[in-house]
Amino acid sequence: MIQLSKVDKFIDSRFQRIFILKNINLTINEGEFVTLMGPSGAGKSTILNIIGLLDEDYEGDYTFENQVINKMKEKHRNALHKSEFGYIFQAYHLIDELTVYENIETPLLYRGVASSERKSIIAELLDRFKMVAKKDLFPAQLSGGQQQLVGIARAVAGKPRILLADEPTGNLHSTQAKEIMEVFKELHQEGTTIIQATHSAENASYGSRLIEIVDGKIGKDTAL
Questions:
Q1: Are the C-beta atoms of residues 1 and 85 closer than 8 Å to each other?
Q2: What is the DSSP pairing of strand 67-68 with strand 59-64?
Q3: pLDDT per position in the chain (224 positions), as tens?
Q4: Which CATH number fits domain 2-223: 3.20.20.80, 3.90.1010.10, 3.40.190.10, 3.40.50.300?
Q5: For residue 111, what pLDDT is reported?
Q6: What is the pLDDT of residue 47?
Q7: Do 68 and 60 touch, CB atoms closer than 8 A?
Q8: Domain boundaries defined on the chain
Q9: Strands 217-223 and 67-68: what pairing?
Q10: Whether 218 contacts 211, CB under 8 Å
Q11: How many C-beta atoms lie closer than 10 Å to residue 84's C-beta?
Q12: Which of 40, 41, 189, 212 is the most buried (most CB within 10 A)?
């Protein structure tokens, strides 16, 4: 499904080349729940950004479903990003001026989903994440855990095949973190491919595969 081959990412300074990623070779199959684990600055988020088509500044090859991303036109790449990927950030990235309902609706508006279908999808997600009573509140009126649940609901509203999560519980206390990871577990059981970057061994235990990232390189790659 996803294949990175000899991927390098670097910064050229005046005197040297500083590698952020070095010779990344990685294959992820549909339906896996993969954890990228390593210290801050190891390159976990950079790998997620490349896979999620948020970063095009790298060398090497990225193949998605037998399509070579590097050779795609921008219009095709943007369409792929919208249709296949959902992204969950540590900092939530909700729009402060929009209600819970409107935040979840945003990606559906971008995709041109009809009004009646939008209402049905959002109603289902609000019910699933127990946010029906919060639908007219703004992000500032929610707890951190509730904001992250809205972030997840927004990410999965368009039914992406791949969910990318960058330190999704980094700002949450343990009870909220467990709730978020249980949601991921459900989504994985329903067939969603999940790739998360985390420091947390507990979060990693929810996945089916653990890949250690050390100094921009892949270390151990272990089935769980």
A1: no
A2: antiparallel
A3: 999 999 999 999 888 999 999 999 999 999 999 999 999 899 999 999 999 999 999 999 999 999 999 889 999 998 899 889 999 988 888 999 999 999 999 999 988 899 999 999 999 999 999 999 999 999 999 999 999 999 999 999 988 999 999 999 988 888 889 999 999 999 999 999 999 999 999 999 999 999 999 999 999 999 99
A4: 3.40.50.300
A5: 84
A6: 98
A7: no
A8: 2-223
A9: unpaired
A10: yes
A11: 18
A12: 212
Tokens at 154, concatenated: 């927004």
Instruction: Tell me the HSE value of 200 on the side-chain side, using a 13 A CA sphere.
Output: 19
The C-alpha angle 88, 170, 205, rounded to 5 degrees, equals 85
How many CB atoms sit inside 10 A of residue 152's CB? 24
CA distance 139 to 148: 10
Residue linked to tokens 């792929």: 80
Q: What's the pLDDT score for residue 170?
A: 86
HEC letters along the chain: CEEEEEEEEEEECCCCEEEEEEEEEEEECCCCEEEEECCCCCCHHHHHHHHCCCCCCCEEEEEECCEEHHHCCHHHHHHHHHHHEEEECCCCCCCCCCCHHHHHHHHHHHCCCCHHHHHHHHHHHHHHCCCHHHCCCCHHHCCHHHHHHHHHHHHHCCCCCEEEEECCCCCCCHHHHHHHHHHHHHHHHCCCEEEEEECCHHHHCCCCEEEEEECCEEEEEEEC
Residue 195 contacts residue 165 (beta carbons within 8 Å): yes
